[in-house]
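Appendix B. Extra example for self-study. Work through it before the problem class; the solution is given directly after the inputs so you can check yourself.
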Amino acid sequence: MTQKISPPHPLETRVVLKGMEEAFSWTLEVYKKHSGYEAARKAISMEPDQIVGEVKNSGLRGLGGAGFATGVKWGFIPKNPVKPIYLICNADEGEPGTFKDRQIMEHVPHRLIEGMICAASAIRSKTGYIYIRGELRLAIERVEQAIEEAYKAGFLGKNIFGSGRDFDLTVHPGAGAYICGEETGLIESLEGDRGQPRLKPPFPAVSGAFGGPTIVNNVETLSQVPAILLNGAEWFIKLGGGTNRTAGTHCMSVSGDVQRPGFYEVPVGFSLKKLLYEICGGPLPGRQFKACYPGGSSSPVLLVDEFEVGLDFDSIAAKGSMAGSGAVIVLDDRRSMVDMAMRTARFYAHESCGQCVPCREGTKWVYLMLKRLNSGQGTKKDIQNILDACANMAGKTICVLSDACAMPVTSFIKKFRHEFEAIARQESEVESALPKVSGQMGGLMGSILARQNKNQSEKR
Amino acid sequence: MAYSFNPTLEDKFQWLLSRYPKKDAVLLPVLHLVQAEVSWLSPEVIDYVASRLELSPARVREVASFYSMFKMNKKGKYVLQVCQTMSCYLRGAEEIISKAKEILGISEGETTPDGLFSIERVECLASCGTAPVMQVNRWDFMEELNPEKMDQIISLLKKDKCAHESYEKRISEGGVA
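Solution. Structure tokens for the complete assembly:
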């Protein structure tokens, strides 16, 4: 952790990250100064439905990438289930470009724990797990310390806040698999299995971890809850820009070709252009912005003239992309878009869990075709083949990993087709460059061809 | 000699079992604890963990091999995992990897003959704002790297200096990242 936490930029509004710049911000002592655990105390005395109602009214949406209304999700939990209800925090932050959850866990872990106490009261859960990416050693350490402090203070465990209710919380370390950020993949992994997503329905709210009704929420989403319960849904809506489509704040992770990369918490209705030019200081000296991924590497790219857009889910969706996890990766005029598309596809090819054929094969072949194009050996036919493969991946699999590869790759080709065509060779060039192979082909293909030839000559 | 949990690990194992409704669920946390102690998951280790969890060794191997953090082969004492994904690439990850290869004289996936270093390319480590990033073993990240820093880090590690898991301790010994 080499980054020194600076005080917020004047245009920032820190709610989730409030107090993170203070020394020992991760301790209970410092956290209590920022009305720490007052919301949890309040939540314990509220009726579960009241909490769900308040969160529904606030317009809080899942900040892990999907943007699903949090209150609505909580409402799916059955009232009197036979099996115990589980609350899981998804802290398997892995979408390229995203590093906001790590900041919350490293600097204000108590806010996450408090949010989980509130959420657990809302869904009547007695057991919670925080599934943290295994690589994030410091985050795991800080969250475990904070949990220990909270147990000692009587905020976790049996009879929390003297209310007669129980809530146990445990950190579960992941072990390096992007797919475990998908909620059912995460549940499989929590149960001690390979993190391969499950077919839905049943949705986790009906049958999730250990067969019980389960809610999986992202770190930032849960960390938003305390402030909502303390200040009310209306305050939250005003904070974001005044409508419940743009409620609250969003921690943006900015990286790539920009002067001041980093994490910045801004109102949801904030403009992307203002974020990149004013807060992040614009492009590197002597460079121009070319494009950006607005919500992690799985979001379709936005061109520089599309930067004038609000950061909320709906505005970015209207531009044909998605706000996702709020990770902006900026590309400047030095970058080849064929190269970037190839690297995007390589990530998904590496992370495909392998259970659905369109994804396992599709991500790999799209990557290989892009690699060939990028090395100057591809043809125009490859461009069409990539688009065809992408069209056969999106929406054809159990989870959305194949969509996450197909969407940005398709957008790169649609928006920068000239770059792909410029690097592609003519069909005739490639054919003459290839060595002539007849009857000498090795491997399986060779033996099949040889057998066919033999059969044909026998028939004759 | 057959592997078994030491008393501290045994305590942690029992505590973990009390935190989950199902025994299998402790598999990942237990493998992490064991690997921290023995550096890689040898067949004996896998057999032992399987017997303690009443699972077949094949099942433990099936799960462990799915996750990139579990080492199924012996590797160097210091495994340099350099992130190669988008943001790190944009900020010069390839230079970092070439520098490491040049200094150590090995390629990705290889280990130096003295058994000290291995180099690996990994995907996003969630530290894109401070790219390029490297993780050594399971320590705190080494961030905002450049070729000169890589040079210094490797020479410090060769002397077993600044080989602390935590960033603060490394820096207090004169480390660079």
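Self-check: The domain at 28-238 of chain A is CATH 3.40.50.11540 (Rossmann fold). If your reasoning did not lead you there, revisit section 3.
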